[in-house]
Amino acid sequence: MTTTDTSHIRNFSIVAHIDHGKSTISDRILELTHTVEERDMRSQLLDTMDIEQERGITIKSNAVRVMYDADDGETYQFNLIDTPGHVDFTYEVSRSLAACEGAVLVVDATQGVEAQTVSNANLAMNANLEIVPAINKIDLPSAHPDEVREEIEEELAIPAEDAVCVSGKTGEGIHDLLESIVFLVPPPEGDARAPLKALILDSYFDEYRGVVAMVRVFDGSIKKGDRLHMMQGDEDFLVDAVAVKRPAEVPVRELAVGEVGVVVTGLKDPAAVRVGDTLTYADRPCAEALPGYREAKPMVYTGIFPIDNKEYENLRDALEKLRVNDPSLVWDPETSVALGFGFRVGFLGLLHMEVVKERLEREFGLDLIATSPSVDYHVYLTDGDMVDIRSPQDLPDPSSIDHIEEPYLKAKVIVPPEFTGAVMQLAVEHRGEMADMVYLSDKSVEMHFEIPLAELILDFFDQLKSRTKGYASLDYEFDEYRPSDLVKLDILLSGDDVDALSFIVHKDKAYPLARGLCDKLKEMIPRQQFEVPIQGAIGSKIIARSTVKAVRKDVLAKCYGGDITRKRKLLEKQKEGKKRMKSIGRVEVPQEAFLAVLKVDE
Amino acid sequence: MAEKDFRALYLHVPFCASKCAYCDFESAPCDRRDPLLSEYAVSVAGMVERVRSAGLLGALETAYIGGGTPTLLADGDLVRLVKISGPVGELSFEANPESLTAEKLVAAREAGATRVSIGVQSLNDRELRALGRVHTAETAIEALRLAAVSGLDVSCDLMGAIPLQTPESLRSSVRGVLGCGVGHVSVYPLQVEEGTPFGRAVDEGRMELPSTDREADAMEEAEALLRAAGFQRYEVASYALPGRDCRHNGHYWDGSAYLGLGTGAASMAHRALYERFRELAPGLPAMPDGNERARFSCTSTAPAVASAHGALEPLAWDVEFLTAGEAAAEDLMLAARTSKGIPGEQVARAGRLLGRERVLGALRGLERDGLLARVDDAWRPTERGWLLGNVVFGRLWSLASE
Predict the structure, then answer these.
(1) What is the largest CA-CA distance in chain A?
(2) What topology does CATH give the domain A6-184?
(3) Closest partner residue to A562 among B213, B266, B388, by Cβ?
(4) Which among A58, A262, A351, A436 is least surrounded, fewest beta carbons within 10 Å?
(5) Where does residue A229 rank: exposed (0-12), middle (13-18), buried (19+ CB within 10 A)?
(6) What does CATH list as the number for A384-484?
(7) Strand partners, A223
(8) Does any CB of chain A come closer than 8 Å to the CB of residue B155?
(9) Common-topology check for domains A300-370 and A384-484
(10) Where does the signal sequence lie (chain B) (predicted)?
(11) A440, A114 contact by CB (below 8 A)
(12) Domain boundaries along the sequence of chain A
């Protein structure tokens, strides 16, 4: 590939609310620029993970170089950086934006501006990017691009009279969009002769090549054989190769100033390369590092255990490898009598948790069980000390606790006016307090309330979607820690405490939760040789109880000559079933019982 | 243990007047005048003759002609099978009430039969209809009375937890058969099997699986009545007056080698005997090294068996091989079904193959759970152990693999 003059480079991201069609627009751009021939086209080409393809969402960022022959007769190098659209992945978005000079803001012509449109537009503007608005899905009969144009101007204060109308589905308007990018997005600035300054945007681990880093070069250039230094990680390596993604990796001679591409480091330790770190020359370092990213703080914690305990080490390795391109992932070892050895893992949010769990299972072939998610509680002791508690098992003895504080969020929900009642009801059920309500237009209301994070992570989002027929969008940010009347609910089987089934809950919710859990467990635990009492307890006080009656008959009565082989097969099948059970004292509990209970609806 | 010859012989008659709603046995409904029945009986008799000539039946102690419905055969064919099986100390045949005549009883007894086992199932007509039985309670009682005066030992089968059955109707069925002078009763809780009309009814939601509580009630109820009448439970589902245990069935549980001939009939043999039998039936594969026991059953259809004309060479088989350790664990599991339990010498023998501490550990664990009790030198099932047999069998069988 020939070198492109810096003035002909355009680095941009496409940002949007989830489902507004960012990935399809990316696909069309790849097609129109012949980066990918039509016959090789499959949808969501940049979403390489199975989960992304299946769920139709983007989780990881991906950067692709396309060459565009513009109407002015010049050829431009576009570095297109696809970003996630979900609130949990704001961190990924801000990382990608740091590599760009511009952002295409995609808004759905049928839905208009939504919560993530606003927050992603804000992120882009804060990063000083040039915004190129695009109104998508204009092929749909319910498209109302003019109203959407107004919304963009009113709600985002972005001039939109020139917003390009496109259809990711039909390809209409994509050419105009590319022209707008050429004219609106500024070329990168930087000094080709200065010491190298490159930002690590992302990285991943490759079995054969070690850590591969995706970088944006701000000053200088990178060639194979260069000795580079990671300023924050304080480690050197020799560049094995440099390449760009089109979207398959194509080796290049160098990554020049302003360009985006990948650097094969050859480093075998997945933890050696940190996303957000600055690369420079080992022998000619730059004066100061680029600003890193806002550090992502985990909000939600859950215990993750391999169903087969022999997989513990593999789970640790898998987490290490995922952390390479997901630095927000944090964990500590955790042990459970019921579930064995595992990790307490911190996540940015619920979708992040689900996605990580699914990636661990799919990409690393692990079978996992996750305990009920919890938040970071501040527990104030009678001696005046404060301890951070992320797992119910770590909660100190109640007598030594003065009070407990839990994180509260400021949540913002945008809904059509007819659903405000339903949302208010839902918020109240989840201990939320309405702050105010603003009519954005006669079609949409923005509701603000304060709500404990712990409530939000249970089933709030699903409930919100179902009670508003999918219309509501949710955004939230951390507000403050507030004292709450919280207790630890334990579940006992035959008198033995099941550590995986402890919960920190608000006192008012402990009773219905305990009852729900006891009933669910009664359903899920098969009858055993002995009667199994199931109890819900706060400290030594039993607040709910159910009983699994003892099985009275379990025998195949007929066993003559021809039945013996069959009978043994049956016993072996029963035994296979037992293998998937965990023993709590002498009670055998199927994995499904934990799964079902950990998903218990309130 | 590894005796030289077969101790028990089983002949299978895979024909019935009609198929019952719960039955997954090898049998097909057919017309009793179908020439296939006779051809089949003649061929199976020929096979017995071959095996006997080869010297494999020298140690025979019991024989059993089962089905299906052996009494669907013409008198002469039934007699043929009885004659060819004997003489042995115990020779049973199965009968269905509607096809058991005085003539058949007498002819079978003359030919050497000592025992008849009648499939009664219930003495309630509504229940019988629901099961798909072709006889009535009255026919069953008549058959039982005839059998009782024929000079044969009489056994009958009853079922518990079947559709429409109440605790009262079960009691009345048990009392009814006792009143006819039987010396042996088997009581099975209904087992719904896949592929049967009951199985389909359950799948389609037209019928509920009997609850294990109902099954336990039925088993306990029957046991109490039978015990009061002087019967002893000598196996999970088998009750007999003193001295009237079925010795043939006992062979299935004590590790004896047995030979089954006819469609679907199952056999068990140790290495040497298996290899000798294989010379007659080359359709069987050689026993691989490391194995000591074979369980095999004939998969040839009834017409295929009939057209073999007494030869074993054309027969097809299903075979399973077990190591010495597996055989020992299997024997422990089977012995635990019976009131004799697992004798000390068997524990010692299994211990040598499977590890003494492991075997004793499993037995002690079952004792702690109240499922086995140590009486004299043997480990015997308790009342709880009879009903929770699968727990006992499962732990003993798993000694083979863990």
Answers:
(1) 90
(2) Rossmann fold (3.40.50)
(3) B266
(4) A436
(5) buried
(6) 3.30.70.240
(7) A254
(8) no
(9) yes
(10) none
(11) no
(12) 6-184, 197-281, 300-370, 384-484, 487-598
- Mean pLDDT, residues A433-450: 86
Domain A197-281 has CATH 2.40.30.10: yes
d(CA A525, nearest CA chain B) in Å: 16
Does B266 contact A565 at a Cβ distance shorter than 8 Å? yes
Domain ranges of chain B: 8-250, 332-400
Contact yes or no for B123/B81 (Cβ under 8 A): no
Of A527, A556, A560, the CB nearest to B390: A556
- A374 vs B43, more confident: B43
Residues at the binding site of A for GTP are 19-24, 136-139
B183 has a chain A CB within 8 A of its CB: no
Instruction: Determine, for residues A555 and B389 on separate chains, whether the beta-carbon distance falls below 8 Å.
Output: yes
Please give, rounded to a whole number of angstroms, the shortest distance from the CA of B73 to a CA of chain A: 22
State yes or no: ipTM above 0.85: yes
pLDDT at A89 over 60: no
Q: B8-250 belongs to which CATH class?
A: alpha beta
- H/E segment holding residue A537: strand A532-538
Confidence of residue A51 (pLDDT cuts 50, 70, 90): low
Find tokens 């215990």 and name the residue: A303
Question: What is the C-alpha separation between B136 and A27, in angstroms, rounded?
Answer: 76
Closest to A562 (Cβ–Cβ): which among B264, B388, B390? B264
Residues 547-566 of A with CB under 8 A from B: 551-562, 564-565
Q: Which CATH architecture has domain A487-598?
A: 2-Layer Sandwich (3.30)
> Does B134 have pLDDT greater than 80?
yes
Sign of the Cα torsion A532, A533, A538, A540 reads: negative
In DSSP notation, B158-226 reads EEES-TT--HHHHHHHHHHHHHTT-SEEEEEE----TTSHHHHHHHTTSSPPPPHHHHHHHHHHHHHHH
B264 and chain A in contact, CB less than 8 A: yes
A576 in contact with B at a CB cutoff of 8 Å? no
